[in-house]
Structure formats: C-alpha cells, structure tokens
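Let's practice the habit of predicting before peeking. Look at the sequence and jot down your guess about where helices and strands might fall. Then scroll down.
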Amino acid sequence: MIGWALRWALLWCGLTIVCVAVMDGGRWLPRYEAATPEMAASQAPEAPAPEAAVNTLVYPVDGRGHVLLDAVVNGAPVRFLLDTGASLVTLTPADARAAGLSPRQLAFDERASTANGFVRMASVNLREIRLGQLSVGDVPAAVIENLGVSLLGMSFLNRLQSYEMRNGKLTISW
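Done guessing? Here is the structure:
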C-alpha cells in the first residue's frame, strides 16, 4: 500500500515540475541551438585579467636549514626564526620590551603547547611587522617566557599572498 502511494506521489511531483517549467516559458529547460560563430565568440571564456604586480622577498636557509629574518616590530628591530608550526608570532621578553610592550603590561596567564612542552604566555597584538617593503598590521602574537629566539608564525604568514620554500630559499609574496 505504501509503495503504491509513494509511486503516485512521485508521479504527481514530476508532473507538477514539468507543468511549472512549461508555464514558465521553458526557462528551466535546457535549450539546444545551433552555435553560430558570433555566438561562439560571445560565449568564449574571457581572457584572464593580468595578475596584479606581485612583490616578493627571498631569504636563503642557513647551514642548519633554518630561515632567519630581520624584521621591524612596532618600530624596533627583531630577528625572527621562521616557524610554520607556530600558530602565532611569538616574541622573546627582550624583543617584546624593544617593541614597546612593557613587562608590566604582560599577563602571563595563558599556556601554550610547544615542542618542548607547555609554556606560559601573554597574548598581545602587534601594531606592525615590517619585512623590507612588506608591512602587515594588527598581528596577533604572544610573548613567551624563556624563549631563545622570536618566531615568525602563522598569524603573520597567513596574511601573505603566498610563501614557498624551494631550493633552499623562502619566497614571500604579497
């Protein structure tokens, strides 16, 4: 009994769709027309727009395979180690102080999991990180106690057009 009712319901739904399509002037139905050269030209995909000029910076890896970058954070020079495994840009307490973040402003009330275990951290927002001509503003970051070198992490890298490591060189594009 249910199978019979289901078949009738599907039949009526199908008929309703066909009737609506016909009453709508057939706009829902595909149209097959002979393509003329003029039509083919008007339906051809547009030529891709020329890409905007891309700015790039290239940094070589050092003898240990690390990329060290000299940047400017809030106007102060900071040496970073590139770390794609770090979610945030992280500063040493000394680099944070140089960038204008007073130790009294920092609340080390959060914990972060690192390759060396859990550490205490203070969340901060950096006004600007500059690498050469590249400037990225309002970057989420953290200050970590007992950190040996500041890390350029994903909160900065995700703001770029692209970054790529190839043939012993890091290429940053924006």
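How did you do? The radius of gyration is 29 Å.
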